[in-house]
Specification:
- The chain is α/β, with parallel strands linked by helices.
- The protein folds into three domains: about 350 residues, FAD/NAD(P)-binding domain, CATH 3.50.50.60; about 300 residues, Aldolase class I (TIM Barrel), CATH 3.20.20; about 30 residues.
- The protein is built from 25 helices and 30 strands.
- Strands 5, 6, 10, 11, 12, 13, 14 and 15 form an eight-stranded mixed sheet that branches. Strands 20-21-23-26-27-28-29-30 form an eight-stranded parallel beta barrel, surrounded by seven helices. The protein has a six-stranded mixed sheet with strand order 8-2-1-9-17-16.
- This is Oxidoreductase.
- InterPro entries: Aldolase_TIM (IPR013785), FAD-bd (IPR002938), FAD/NAD-bd_sf (IPR036188), OxRdtase_FMN_N (IPR001155), YqjM-like (IPR044152).
- GO terms for molecular function: FAD binding; FMN binding; NADP binding; NADPH dehydrogenase activity.
- It comes from Bradyrhizobium betae.
């Protein structure tokens, strides 16, 4: 085949040498606009896994690259007058110029033609090529030519950064955070040869503009950065090799995703690789890795399908199928890390103490978890756990195992919780006339013995017409209150667990069938009239609710207050007001469901007016020493609906009204929603509200392991974790997860103690067998 790589970066060079090495008959040309053995940029970072892949792909170049690598294990943080360090992270760095020079020499040795100082405008300049590989960077002209086919999605991110270097060798991957009168600046610093380090300085657009950095030339920007980071530089100068850039050389990162990676131009197949196809933020240092992985996978697919022109179409299809998955995984992690740095100042640096800030930074991409940190640096993590436990009031003796964050106590108002795990409210649809029955006693009693500190029953409705289905719990009469007392007494008799109630009103989502008979589907008979913020049905064929008038509001408010008093008299210790998931109070908050033109519609203040009225009335009726939380839908996942920014506004309003905690859920407001699911997918909402609004939060959603909960709590992303479906599958989830991570100093119900040792032994045996 005749192969032309447009762009002489890592992707093009590495693909050229791999294809030539595996099939010498190929005619391969790499075209680069710069001079021979010339490049811009400083150092790049690899992982040990990337190096192993390169050893398999081309041992010759891998050996030379390894010989040039600088290896370090430590990460150091300079922050608020402290220096903290952790080890075991295994980075390797090399100068970008050195890396490209090695790949250039290897290409020449194999017979790949290298053409320099040629600026390619179009793929049509190579009509004899069977395959044109467009690896011409994030501003790819080839991709732009076929934009309709490639479907590029380019987002310019808000932060500014400048890519510098220094002739000072740092012995750790160093992060330095410095606050100025206009905001925070952070430096990402790592060594890549014996005497030189990359020094990337990043800040917000606001700080960039306030300091007038756009008006400075490169030398002015360098002088500014040298002053801010003078202590870390310790007399060393900052350097630039980007003199080709005009102005100050401060850049914005461009996040790129393409809908398709290859096209046929009528003569040649054209495929995107590296930054021309996708970008990953430098916060996790994966841009070069992605480019090299692209080259390896494309070469591997030719090995599988055959190195012939007739196979190119199948090869490119398979290449994209495989790479898209891994690229999405890396981009997700890079996005998490990038977004952390974009909001680091006001969300974390201003609010967190240095130990927790360091933990948050280490886990920012969500690729590193709590137990992964233990594998990397047990001493550091146990020191952090000791610090976290001390803040929770636990004094751990030397030599004792420190409890992980999820097993530390937590106090809200006058209520002390034994740990940070709660059983989330989950609808069972098994009541008759709103009454707790034997099923609920067995169901919730089992979970009360499972180790969680706080047990919530399902959403409990404040009136018969507030129910979602005929099977929903209620608290509108004395018989129901008596059954709640029965439940509270049972749970208190079983151990340390406390009891919570979530009061709600279904609104437009009421009068529906039991979930297993057709979720959200209207009842065939026995319907009751519905009310909502506006007269909008949930489904096209759902019952149309009546828009509430002032009389309706008075009645509903009073129903909530009456249920609150009954809950308090029954001994319930925590009350949550349900303002999420499209139910009645949520329908006021979302602009999708609130189309009112009176004082209850329009602005955030107007949309929150009635939910806040209910909240204040309930808070006044609820004992002052007992906590009260509010569940919010923090994202409607629909164009025109509430976003996390709106949720933060509402959270601040409820905080001012006296809420202690915000329970951060999302969705279920609008049926046509498009949520983005994934591990811990709702935790960012709890993180934002906790650290920007300054109120405690509950994280909920796809939290299924102790490692998840510990990572969330340790990083200060939430104060409690609500576990839903895992508690349906395993009532003793908390006890079992504690045993799985080796925590044996946790009490089991006395009736079950004989099983505890055997359970822990079996886990230890399974772990030992898996390690062999």
């Amino acid at each position: 085949m005749r192969i032309v790589c447009i762009g002489g970066g890592p992707a093009g060079l590495y693909l050229g040498l791999l294809m030539k090495r595996r099939h010498p008959e190929h005619s391969i040309t790499v075209v680069e606009r710069n001079k021979p053995y010339d490049t811009f940029g400083w150092g790049v970072v690899f992982s040990d896994a990337m190096m192993q892949a390169m050893r398999l792909a081309d041992p010759e170049s891998a050996t030379e690259i390894e010989d040039a690598f600088n290896h370090w294990d430590d990460i150091e943080l300079v922050f608020k007058g402290t220096r903290q360090r952790t080890t075991g992270h295994g980075f390797i760095g090399i100068g970008r110029k050195h890396l490209l020079n090695i790949l250039q020499r290897r290409c020449e040795a194999l017979g790949v033609e290298l053409v320099f100082e040629r600026d390619v405008e179009s793929d049509l300049e190579f009509p004899d090529a069977d395959l044109i590989v467009a690896c011409d960077g994030v501003n790819s002209r080839i991709r732009a030519r076929y934009a309709e086919q490639f479907q590029p999605d380019m987002v310019i991110r808000p932060n500014r950064f400048i890519w510098l270097g220094t002739k000072k060798a740092f012995d750790a991957f160093t992060f330095d955070f410095q606050k100025t009168e206009h905001g925070w600046f952070q430096a990402h610093i790592y060594k890549f040869d014996a005497e030189t380090s990359t020094f990337i300085v990043e800040t917000t657009e606001e700080a960039y503009n306030s300091h007038g950095l756009g008006d400075l030339d490169q030398q002015g920007s360098i002088a500014f950065c040298e002053k801010i980071f003078a202590e870390t530089l310790d007399g060393a100068k900052l350097l630039t090799n980007a003199r080709h850039l005009r102005g100050s050389a401060w850049l914005n990162f461009s996040r790129l995703i393409c809908g398709k990676w290859s096209v046929f131009n009528g003569r040649s197949h054209v495929v995107l690789m590296g930054d021309a196809a996708h970008t990953a933020h430098f916060a996790i240092g994966s841009g070069t890795k992605l480019a090299l992985d692209d080259a390896i996978e494309l070469a591997n697919q030719f090995d599988r399908h055959g190195h012939g022109g007739d196979n190119i179409g199948a090869v490119l299809e398979a290449y994209e199928d495989v790479r898209r998955v891994d690229v999405a995984r890396i981009q997700n992690a890079a996005r998490n890390a990038m977004e952390w740095f974009e909001v680091v100042g006001h969300r974390y640096a201003d609010t967190l103490e240095p130990p927790q800030f360091f933990y948050s930074m280490l886990t920012r991409s969500q690729r590193i978890s709590h137990e992964n940190l233990r594998l990397r640096d047990r001493a550091w993590l146990e020191g952090f756990e000791r610090w976290f436990a001390a803040r929770s009031g636990i004094a751990v003796k030397d030599g004792e195992r420190v409890p992980p964050p999820m097993l530390t106590p937590h106090r809200v108002r006058g209520l002390s919780l034994a740990n940070r795990i709660m059983v989330s409210p989950m609808a069972m649809y098994s009541a008759q006339d709103g009454l707790i029955d034997d099923f609920h006693i067995a169901h919730l009693g089992a979970r009360a013995m499972g180790g969680a500190a706080l047990i919530f029953a399902e959403m409990t409705c404040v009136s018969p017409d507030a129910r979602i289905t005929p099977g929903c719990l209620g608290l509108w009469n004395d018989a129901q209150a008596a059954q709640w007392r029965r439940l509270v007494d049972l749970i208190h008799s079983l151990g340390h667990a406390k009891v919570g109630i979530q009061l709600g009103h279904a609104g437009r989502k009421g009068s529906t069938r039991l979930a297993w008979e057709g979720i959200d589907q209207p009842l065939e008979t026995g319907n009751w009239p519905l009310i909502s913020a506006s007269a909008l049905p949930y489904l096209p064929h759902s019952q149309v609710p009546r828009a509430m008038d002032r009389g309706d509001m008075d009645r509903v408010r009073d129903d909530f207050v009456a249920a609150t008093r009954r809950a308090a008299e029954a001994g319930v210790e925590w009350l949550e007001l349900h303002c999420a998931h499209g139910y009645l109070l949520s329908s006021f908050l979302s602009p999708l469901t609130n189309r009112r033109t009176d004082e209850y519609g329009g602005s955030h203040e107007n949309r929150a007016r009635f939910p806040l009225e209910v909240f204040r009335a309930v808070r006044a009726a609820w004992p002052s020493d007992r906590p009260m939380s509010v569940r919010l839908s923090c994202h409607d996942w629909t164009e025109g609906g509430n976003t996390p920014a709106d949720a933060a506004i509402f959270a601040a309003m409820f905080k001012e009204a006296g809420a202690d905690v915000i329970d951060c859920s999302s969705g279920q407001v609008w049926k046509e929603e498009r949520p983005i699911y994934g591990r811990l997918f709702q935790t960012p909402f709890a993180d934002r509200i906790r650290n920007e609004v300054g109120i405690e939060t509950i994280a909920v959603g796809a939290i299924s392991e102790a490692d998840h909960a510990n990572s969330i709590l340790a990083a200060g992303r939430a104060d409690l974790c609500a576990i839903a479906r895992p508690h349906l599958a395993d009532p003793a989830w908390t006890l079992h997860e504690a045993a799985r991570i080796g925590i044996t100093a946790v009490s089991w119900p006395k009736q079950y103690v004989s099983a505890k040792g055997q359970y822990e032994t079996n886990l230890a045996r399974a772990a030992a067998a898996a390690a062999q």
